[in-house]
Write a structure and sequence with these properties.
By secondary structure, the chain is an all-alpha fold. It is built from five helices and no strands. It has one domain. The termini are far apart. The structure holds zinc ion (ZN).
Length: about 90
């Protein structure tokens, strides 16, 4: 009943991960608009990738790719490319 550690720690953690999720989705949405002029929700409605504008069903080679498209608006090919270029910022 006196476990103060147990009380404080998860609360902090939850707040921190919530912030991370929020800023990440805001980043993705502005990324989407700057790439293709489509917002994430527009792309999902149209059924296209926000980056290449193609049908994600033809651009995804795994079920995870389609899940990612629903999340970020990027087909698997574009997602992989952006992730690859984003991680290596030295040229
Ligand atoms: Zn694409």
């Amino acid at each position: 009943m006196t476990s103060t550690e147990d009380h404080v720690y998860p609360e902090e953690e939850r707040k921190r991960s919530q912030e991370r999720v929020l800023s990440l989705s805001a980043l993705k949405d502005s990324l989407a608009e700057s790439c293709f002029g489509l917002s994430l929700s527009e792309a999902l409605e149209e059924g296209v990738c926000v980056d290449c504008g193609k049908d994600p069903k033809e651009q995804c080679y795994s079920p995870e790719g389609m899940i990612e498209w629903r999340r970020s608006g990027l087909c698997e090919i574009c997602f992989d490319r952006i992730m690859a270029s984003g991680e290596e910022e030295e040229e």
